[in-house]
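thought: fold this chain, then report.
action: predict
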Amino acid sequence: MGINSRFIDGLSVAKGAREAGWLFGEPVLRAGGVSTVGWCKENSLSQWQKGGGWTANLYGGVNTGDDWAGVFIPVNELPITQFTTAQWSYYMTGAETAGVNIVVWIHDPTAFEKRAEVTQVGGSVAKAAGWNSQDFTTATTGMFYYGEGTTGSGLTAGTQYAWSQFQADTIFSTWTIYRISLEYGWEASGTLDDAWLAEVSLNGMYIPLHPQAGARAGGETKTVYLATVSDSTDDVAIITPAAAKRVVVHSVFMNTASATAAQFEVYFGVVATIATAGATPVCACVLDTDTQAFETAQFGSDGPRGAIGEALSIRTSAIITTNGNFTIVYHEE
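observation:
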């Protein structure tokens, strides 16, 4: 899980960190509440402009105080007195009430039940539409903490301080960092639209952003169901992706309650039929209750992809009114 990177000359680290060969581990995606997070390798906003080819897509959603999306970076017991600089950049869909802020997770290396998270106020960082970058130093203010086993600290939980004050504190100065996260959310109200974290540097060490082995790009798997409309030959968009995202189809289930034979069509694009120029076919089959009433198409998690912002459409070739239905399993990336 570790990133085999150089250690900074003169850097004090916990016993065994140099032997283990890593100081900052591979990033992990996490989210809570209504927020979502996923790896993104391509979109129309941040493609090719920054980073190493992957971005972490953070979607805050409708915030009610406990909704957040973030990137967790394990840290191999770095003394907080040794953490002095960080930089990160991210693209935001629009101007928001909060940007992507840093959280430093610390504990007593001799008593793990004593711990705290030191959070940067989300509203204090860059939050304009477009590309934003943020610098963190020992002079950075707007840092507050909550934790357990913090008796004896000269700092008050919930009060904002500079990072240097944590480094000089009676007890925190002896503690170590076990995780650093870049987070988006935790607002009491409002909606935080998509942001893409592209670059992270900690203590001058670049942290590659990419999925871990076995992880896939995109958000969580979703399922949508839709019955045919009264004139089922009319094309209907069953899925319209969020701004700057694309649909990836995992599977399609189709069934009919009509004796009229009709071709069930699933395709990308908002066009008249699956054969119309501009449509990208996903699957098609002829169904009726006399011969075959249902069919499935399985693609796995790396199935057909639409273009950025392209809808997935359904229709039937003959009118069966509302007697047909489609169930699509998919994700967005």
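thought: worth noting. The chain has two domains: 17-206, 222-332.
final: tokens above.
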